[in-house]
Amino acid sequence: MKYLFLLFLGFSLLAACSNQPVPQNAGQTPVSQDSNTDILVNAYTGSFQIGNPKFAKIVLDFYKNYDANTISNISGYISDTLKMNLSDGKQYDCSQDSAIKVLQQMRNSLQISRTIPDAYVTVTFANLPGTWVSVWGKRIAKKNNAGDTLYFNENWKFNDSGKLVVRNEYIRKPAP
What we know:
Shape: globular
Helix content: 10-25%
Strand order of the largest sheet: 1-4-5-6-7-2-3
Number of helices: 3
Largest sheet: 7 strands, mixed
Order of helices and strands: HEHEEHEEEE
Oligomer: single chain
Structural class: alpha+beta
Radius of gyration: 24 Å
Strand content: 35-45%
């Protein structure tokens, strides 16, 4: 049985190492011209450039205000409507006042919150409105006298008026 396996392995290696050229598009799925039906075409994969760092500063200030439990200080940076997609699966499409209320309720449920951003980038895309800010970091929170550490990635979209319109949150727990 051992020799049969080695013989099979040898033939497999010979077949894999043939001198036949590999076509240029090997392994690629053809992209259709109809972007409405092709899920591989994405509007955000084209040309992009580093955006205005003032939007990253707004996000970093948000974290400071969230940790200090002074959420109302950031209300001026939120659009009339805000879409929030949270890591627990909850989605909110709400007015500025409702968004502040939701964020305040989230913060009030914690005894302590400490956000430690590790990296961030601000990006704009050609021919698309708005600016995205992506932040990666760690959040330490204390709730019901129990501490918890979470790693996060958050993506914030600002409209052309400089107001926050979308906030997407992704969280993972540290490995045991």
